[in-house]
Amino acid sequence: MNRVSDAVLAIAVNNSGCCPSLVPYKIENNNIDKSKFEQDYRDFFTATQSHDIVIALEVEGLLDRDVMAILAKYKPKCVELLDLQEHTCDPNKLRVAIITLKKLGIAISVKVVNVYRQWHSLPEYIDAVTIKGADGAGRVAERVDSLESQLCFIKQQSRRLFVIASGGVSSAEDVKLLIDAGADMVSVGTIFAVSSESSMSTATKEKIISSSYSQVEKIGTAKQNALVFAKTENDDTNNTLGLGLGVKDPSAGHVYVGRAIDNITEIRPVADIVKDLTSQL
Q1: Side-chain half-sphere of 31: how many Cα atoms within 13 Å?
Q2: I need a surface site. Which of 117, 147, 154, 224 has the fewest CB within 10 A?
Q3: Residue 29 binned pLDDT confidence (cut-offs 50, 70, 90)
Q4: What are the residues facing 54 on neighbouring strands?
Q5: Would the pLDDT of 236 be above 90?
Q6: 252 to each of 109, 203, 215, 243, 267, how far by Cα in Å?
């Protein structure tokens, strides 16, 4: 989640034996705070000396010269493109950026919310796909089959792609079910956002814990799953202003959450969360 997936959380996830993600901090009008992005990445690399991290970006961010320079310097394991099939950027510039990343040994992943609709338009150059189920936080499909069904479909279509399952994961049973269904990796979001190491305020974490998935709304044109504290006027298309307010204080704005909130009962360290999630593997 923007404003939450930072260096401190990434370091904690790495130290727990998992592959973390880093989402560049967004400011108004969906622009990346490039100095904070570089600082977060530098802090992560200094602490871990690891390249095992996923950088989640929109295509417009990837095409930024300064962002590309940061990626070239630290060489993450993977760049995940969040809007590959919706962007309006120059396809030739994107092709050059992808070639550059590939030459650096950086894998390319794409996030999809409906694999049946989006499968045939996925480019051949991708190495991995993240299937985000309808129970996840943020942008999801409104009507789609279960994650297990989508996993079975994509495994039938391709044996080459590395497949990540995401959306609503909060228990060891969820993780085992998705791995057994064919996922190579399982991604979690909401449950880490409420961890001890998350930069989200304690008050907001406690508000999430006391809430339920039945209170989640779909907000904005992207229909993002969110727990809304108060409506934010004149927000951008990614609801960035409201998110910035919500992660600091549950009296304003909103936070993106998924069905996992129904299984979160306390604020816990990442290491304890990971130990529980992997206990049936």
Answers
A1: 7
A2: 117
A3: low
A4: 21, 78
A5: no
A6: 34, 12, 16, 9, 21
